[in-house]
Structure formats: structure tokens, C-alpha cells
Automatic annotation (TrEMBL):
Residues 92-246 form the N-acetyltransferase domain. Keywords: Acyltransferase, Transferase. Gene3D superfamilies: 3.40.630.30. One of its GO terms (molecular function) is acyltransferase activity, transferring groups other than amino-acyl groups. One of its GO terms (biological process) is mitotic sister chromatid cohesion. One of its GO terms (cellular component) is NatA complex. InterPro entries: Acyl_CoA_acyltransferase, GNAT_dom, N-term/lysine_N-AcTrnsfr. This is N-acetyltransferase domain-containing protein. Pfam families: Acetyltransf_1. It comes from the Eukaryota.
Amino acid sequence: MAGKVIKRVHCHLLNMPKLYNLVPNLEKNRMKFVRLSTKVCSPETLEKQLPTKSLSSRSYRLQMDGNDNLNDTKTHTTSRRSKLHQLAIEDVTFLPIDDSNVQELYKMNEKLFPIKYNNAFYEYVADAPEGYCKLAYTANGDAIGAICCELEDVKILKKRRFRLCILTLGVLQEYRRSKLGTLLLESVISQARKDQLAYVYLHVQSCNKAALHFYFARGFKFVKFMHNYYPEIHPPHCFVLRLQLHATT
């Protein structure tokens, strides 16, 4: 068995939409136009870029794409919907991650996540306990999603128990909203129940509202808020979420 993963990584189940600009509400002439960076990813970041007074009494309407690239956006949306319609969930296959396909996971992570994973991460997932690290493949053999979890030994009420930490869960953008993320999550939860694990938990970056909504909708509960958990990214804070599987008494 490979060594324990040294560094925790946050979950990027779904990317927050990028806001290109704020446009005035044409129904209210008093609205102010504010230009924003394309890298805005959260309300917290957004607020820092706006004058304080503009947040108190003025309302804005968000425009997701500027007029200069509206046609490109429509083309991208049409292409994405086309791929979504072509994905038949019944044709998706889950395969364990091992030495033969760990490079596919590496390439996917490069696309999905803004941080780099160290060698310890890939050494662990390629030799992880059965059922907890897997790739999702289409009928054509394309890797389109993955989930990686770590089995942890923990003492609960002076008894030795095991819990599961979700390290990463990701689906390629063009295949999201196809319930693939849900199926990946349910597959490891099912395995955890069979193995009599106490609970499943994960860390979610505080600005990742899409991921928070996803996990809350699937029974996860808030446990605690951790300051400066991710010192290399902004915001560095995270929420710890947990899904209880078996009683700890």
C-alpha cells in the first residue's frame, strides 16, 4: 500500500460561472456600469472589485457574456448541449484507477482543477482500496469523470473505526448535468456502507457554492468552518461536510 496522501485537496465538482461584466439595468437609468475581470469566481471576490456604495442601494443585473463574444458563447452552449444529449448514462463504465490508467486521471485533473497534485496523490489512488478511486468512461473509451477517496483509520468513542475522505470528484465540463457526478458519488457511498464505514466527509472551498449545494442536496451536513485551510488559493477557507453512514455508538 502506498503512503498516506500528505496534502488535502479541495473539491471542484462544478466550476462557478465566470462573470464577464456587469451591465446597467435599462429599466433604471441610475444604474452604473462596472467592468469586471473574467476570473471572478465568487461573491466575495466580486464585492472587493465594486465601490462600497454601489452595494448598498443599487441593484445590478448580471450578464454572463459580453456582446463582443456572444456568438461564440452561443456556439459553445449548443456544442455542449449536443454532447450532453449524446451521453447515455447506461453506457458509462466505472473502472478502478491503477497503473494502466493513472495517467488519464492526471490529464483530467490538469483540466479540472487549478492546483497540482503531488506524486503521493497519484501513488495512493493507483493502489487504493477497491471501490474508492475510479474513472468513468464512455462507450468510446474516453475518460470523462473521476472520483478519488482515501480510507482513514480513526478513533471514535475509544473504538477503532474507519471513515472515508473524498479527495476529488470531477466531471469534464461538456458532460456535467448528466448525473454522472451523482453516480460517481453514490458508487463510493454504496461501497462505504458495505464496508461498514462510520461516515464520509470532505472539504469544500468556501466560495464553491455549486459544490455546497450539490452535497447538501445529497444528505451531507455542515460540520465546521476552517480558516486558512488552503493557503495557496483565495479564499483559503473551507467548509467540512459529512454524511453519517452508521451509528458511532
